[in-house]
Design goal:
11 strands; 15 helices; 3-stranded antiparallel beta sheet; 8-stranded parallel β-barrel; TIM Barrel; Family 10 glycosylhydrolase; hydrolase activity; signal; alpha/beta
Length: 417
């Protein structure tokens, strides 16, 4: 997910307070039994929000703010999570092969100061972990593994950027720059860069979004032919080799997290459709124009069935009744995939669409998201929800988040372990 506008959102559209661990429980009604109080206190579910930093989507509101202003905006969003009785924040700390902590491997993010590589004078990730934990929130460090830049000009990168030192690692595609997932040295480097943050900070989790190989762009091809010739022997097709590259990233990252910080959980929020049933009988009864398996080379179903990830958050950003990809179809499909696996299932929710008339009639109704949670409760495999994104959690312009809280989050909760 990455994110003034997620490409996933656009393509999909075209193709068709304190609820925190340790916080005080909600007041009990007079005469409530001890057993009833214990039941109420025992609620365990994911209630999360994504806090996106790419292109200053959620934070900071613009580049170049003072340290005090940046800190204030960050803690205000954490406070909003507490007010909404959430438990977890997915904080985007590596939006584009850069860093929101003093990384020895990659430059400071341009979204802080306006200049890539410029020290902002403080440690946003370290501060976020400390302030989240002080509020009883969990903090998952959110990384984008392969995106290098939202433009296609390597000369605009910081002089020290690894992509400038290793131009052979980079593929220009659709007006952006990406690391080539087919190069073992790239896979090793991005893991080293990401795991540095896991080693330095007591994060509660590590989170990937939906970007692996880039979303298709009409008229463009991702030029990894040389890497395929060099490393693709033994695979039936380039597509199978690409999927193996992403599978390796997932497995190796999981192993690295277990080695460095065994208590941290590893999760991924993929595009919501693995494959349409018309492509694969195991797929969902959808007609999505994008399929994660075929277009992003992300075998998301396998990651769950094999237990490679601790949790998965498919981005089910469609309304109930949407013709090409119905929320009411995809929730039971994912529940069936998760059944019997060790991977916990949460649902990614499109809070950002609520009240937006351009998104269709269903989203003009502020009750749409609340109905999502009501429907998902029918499936015991669904252990919670994550909302995109923090700005809307705080401002709630359509009142949809307030409806969710009133209907579903009236008592405190603990995040799943």
């Amino acid at each position: 997910m990455g994110r003034v506008t997620r490409r996933a959102f656009t393509v999909a559209a075209l193709s068709t307070l304190a609820v925190t661990p340790g916080a005080a429980a909600a007041p009990q009604p007079p005469g409530a039994s001890t057993e009833a109080r214990q039941r109420r206190a025992a609620v365990t579910e994911m209630r999360g929000m994504w806090l996106a930093t790419v292109n200053n989507r959620d934070w900071p509101s613009r580049t170049g703010l003072s340290t005090a202003r940046q800190r204030g905006e960050l803690t205000a969003l954490l406070d909003a999570a507490v007010r909404r009785r959430l438990t977890t924040v997915m904080f985007q700390v590596r939006p584009a092969a850069d860093a929101l902590w003093p990384s020895p491997y990659e430059p400071w993010s341009q979204f802080l100061t306006g200049t890539q590589g410029k020290d902002p004078g403080w440690d946003p990730l370290g501060t976020a972990v400390k302030e989240a934990h002080a509020r009883g929130l969990q903090l998952h460090a959110w990384f984008n593994p392969y995106r290098v830049a939202l433009h296609a000009d390597p000369s605009r990168l910081a002089a020290s950027h690894p992509a400038r030192k290793h131009p052979d690692w980079v593929v220009s595609y659709g007006g952006q720059l990406y690391y080539n997932p087919g190069l073992p040295e790239v896979r090793a480097f991005v893991q080293k860069a990401m795991l540095d943050a896991v080693r330095r900070y007591p994060v509660d989790g590590v989170h990937f979004d939906d970007y692996f190989y880039p979303y298709p762009v009409a008229g463009h091809s991702f030029d990894d032919a040389a890497a395929y010739r060099r490393h693709g022997a033994g695979f039936a097709s380039r597509a199978a080799w690409r999927r193996d590259n992403i599978d390796r990233l997932v497995r190796e990252t999981a192993a690295g997290i277990r080695r460095i910080r065994p208590g941290a959980r590893f999760g991924i929020s993929p595009f919501g459709v693995w494959r349409n049933a018309s492509t694969d009988q195991r797929g969902s009864a959808t007609r999505a124009g994008i399929e994660a398996y075929d277009d992003l080379y992300a075998d998301t179903r396998r990651w769950v069935r094999e237990g490679w990830v601790d949790y998965i958050v498919p981005q089910l950003y469609w309304s109930i009744g949407q013709s090409a990809a119905d929320y009411a179809t995809l929730v039971p499909w994912w529940a069936k995939v998760a059944r019997g696996s060790r991977t916990q299932l949460y649902v990614g929710e499109a809070l950002y669409r609520a009240g937006d008339a351009s998104q269709g009639a269903a989203w003009r109704d502020p009750d749409e998201l609340s109905r999502h949670l009501t429907l998902a409760k029918k499936y015991p495999q669904v252990r919670g929800h994550v909302f995109f994104a923090a700005k809307e959690v705080a401002a709630d312009p359509a009142g949809a988040m307030a409806r969710v809280v009133a209907d579903h989050y009236r008592q405190s909760a603990k995040p799943p372990l």
